[in-house]
Write a structure and sequence with these properties.
The complex is a heterodimer of chains A (about 240) and B (about 600).
Chain A (H helix, E strand, L loop, with lengths): L1 E9 L18 E9 L5 H11 L18 E4 L2 E4 L12 E4 L6 E3 L2 E2 L2 H9 L19 H5 L18 H5 L6 H12 L7 H7 L14 H5 L6 H16 L1
Parallel strand pairs in A: 1-5
Antiparallel strand pairs in A: 1-2, 3-4, 3-5, 6-7
Helix pairs in contact in A: 2-5, 5-8
Chain B lengths: L8 E9 L3 H12 L4 E5 L15 E2 L10 H11 L6 H21 L13 E2 L16 E2 L5 H16 L2 E4 L1 E8 L5 E8 L5 E11 L20 H8 L4 E2 L4 E8 L9 H4 L3 E3 L7 H4 L9 H13 L11 E4 L5 H7 L1 H11 L8 E10 L3 E2 L5 E4 L7 E8 L4 E2 L11 H23 L8 H13 L9 H15 L3 E2 L1 H18 L13 H25 L8 E2 L7 H4 L1 E6 L4 E6 L18
Helix pairs in contact in B: 1-4, 1-11, 2-3, 3-11, 5-15, 13-14, 13-15, 14-15
Classes of the chains: A alpha+beta (about 240), B alpha/beta (about 600).
Amino acid sequence: MTAIRLSVYRYQPDRDAESRPAASDAKPFMQTFEVEAPPGMMLREALLAIKAQDETFAFRHSCGEGVCGSDGVNLNGTNCLACITPIAELNQPIQVRPLPGRPVIRDLVVDMTQFYEQYRAVEPYLIRKDPLPEQEIRQSPEDRDKLDGLYECILCGCCSTACPSFWWNPDKFHGPAALLQSWRFLADSRDQATEERLDALEGPYKLFRCHSIMNCVEVCPKGLNPTRAIGKIKELMLEQSV
Amino acid sequence: MAAARSLPHRHFDALIIGAGGAGLNAALRLAAADLRVAVVSKVFPTRSHTVAAQGGVNAALANALPDNWHWHMFDTVKGSDYLGDQDAIETMCREAIPTVYELEHAGVPFSRLDNGRIYQRAFGGQSQNFGGEQAARTCAAADRTGHAILHTLYQQNLRAKTHFFDEHFAVDLIRDEEGVTLGALVLDIESGEPLIIESKTTLLATGGHGQVYRTSTNAFINTGDGMAMALRVGVPLQDMEFYQFHPTGVAGKGMLITEAARGEGGYLINSEGERFMERYAPNALDLASRDVVSRSIVTEIREGRGCGPNQDYVLLKVDHLGADVVHQRLPGITDICRVFLGIDPAKAPIPVFPTAHYAMGGIPTDRHARVVAPARHGPEEVVPGLYAAGECACVSVHGANRLGGNSLLDILVFGRAAGTDILSYVAENPNHRPMRDAHLEPAIARLARWERQGEGERVADVKAELRRLMEDHCGVFRDQATMAEGVEKLKALRERVEGVRLRDHSQTFNTARIEALELDNLVDVGMATLMSALHRDESRGAHSRVDYPQRDDERWMKHSLYQREDDRMDYKPVRTKPLTVDSFPPKPRVY
């Protein structure tokens, strides 16, 4: 087994009870660790190995297989999901930082509040106005196929925190993750709030700050395409306004 | 640690601990009725482990093949090896149908049949007409059904304006002298500050405890928190010896490969290329119950017919189904195989091994999700104000072995049942009961214990040892000597936990402290599992004793109850009487 070196971002606002520096003294720094790397090792396992050496190291993670979306981090400058990102081939030391553009709470843990607020802002739930049938609302397989590539989002935040438009205007621009969900409901043949959804996206920021830079597509660990979804929303807006 | 008096208090009608399918379905019912609901979750809700459920949710919709809830009930009773409570099973199988329609109306993106109805696939242990032809009862959103359901429920809760305490860890329940639950002490993980949530009712919906095993399909967060909280307020755990090993975890790694792989036509082969399930389950073959398939795989390997250089796994073949079926119906496992094994399952077979997966046992409840515990008048006495639902609970609908597709169903039906019962409880008990400092002391002491400084063993080391111990002493096949040794080792390990110390006493997002609190929980549920298993000297469902290979209905058709105090075992009868139909009496279980 070979050892690999990782340089990880550390920031601890309150080191501990005895040696706590004044809040202003707490500065972020990069710390290098060496861990044993079995073949096929994922970044999450390397982070766990670091935590085994130093329990003060903090990061979020849970399912270990890319479905819970907890462990979005920045690896050598690119956002990824730690649990499904192999690291054997990378140049060392491997640089691991928190998702960019968000306030850091501690080490790799960032404050995702604004990201979730933008998600909530697009009313990410099915809105049905007709009375509900006793059984399922029918949907053809073709209509259901339109949701593929949309509903699978795991809200890891890799896309929005890689988006320059979201960096500049996280309070006003919904960002790729939220807009992907917006299209997920617009594209659902069962949803009956198209007009309201489109109206709510009017204005220069919420939707139109997307400049098709496509960082979101590059980094999405689930292979989804928010830029395309945003384009579809714009097309639909145009269609509806004619 | 702050004195009890100075801690902030918040007040709610209902406190829900856990934001998986059970917690969120209960919350939705309550928020829609305008109750003040708090959902406490140690992770952001969509990170809850429901998200990882793959194959689907059972309901006798009869969309693909003829079906009816009574057949579903028969299969579930048989699957449970006759340990399931038939009143609860009838409730679940009847409720399944409106429950799935309700989910669909809420927006779950189910896969569809050509006629626009919900897609249903075959799963293990399903039959038409009480043991006849294979049924197709599992409603699926590709192989991402749990993700689709969890996200939908969270989204609908946003709409209903449920109050979420994200990234808050529940430390312990708070009870008064009369045994009424008053709420819980929780820890804000980000700030490190404790908070008292006073609530008229409390629902434990914390999921399973797969992290007690070294190799598991479960997430890091599945540490039995709710079960251990129940134990610490004197509620026993029921049927903990029945722990399901899923036949098809990725060998050596543990990621789940859904039963849907076999439901769609996949099958298992040994090193000789033989489809060995033909010998163990001539009718159901690879879709026999999970306990049966897991034992068959382990037997093949023990008898030298395992695959690979160490002959320590078997192969799951789906490569004959064609790339279209595999990639369209099983996209999630296609991803898992590509990422973790570097193979395309449409081209190469998948190495699999039975992997710790699911707790049939848990906090004893009735079919209204009310926690029941032995008190003054027998084992079924309702604990006032306390509810449990989902994997942490034991209703019991799964008995000794759960059928695939019944777990998502369980969380939804009984999460909702909890919500319904809470509504009437709060209507009858509209006032908060007084909470005094003395009621808080045990919970605060538990938190304070981890403030101790100095030298000591590390949390991670003891946890790793616990997980290996459980795997070695309480696995697929069990015997007296191995388990007795396991209990002794676990008792010694439990003593050692006293001497474990944290190095990190910081406040902000201290994950080491959370893991320490989880270790306490894992040790308690591990002991419940091992003790219950040691005492049951028969084989039933997932509990397979080499030294007692037969089921013994005369002596053992009863539920185990483990009490934390003195590690005491107790028992109560199985409820064999359904609500409206005839009982299914125990029969030999063949597939």
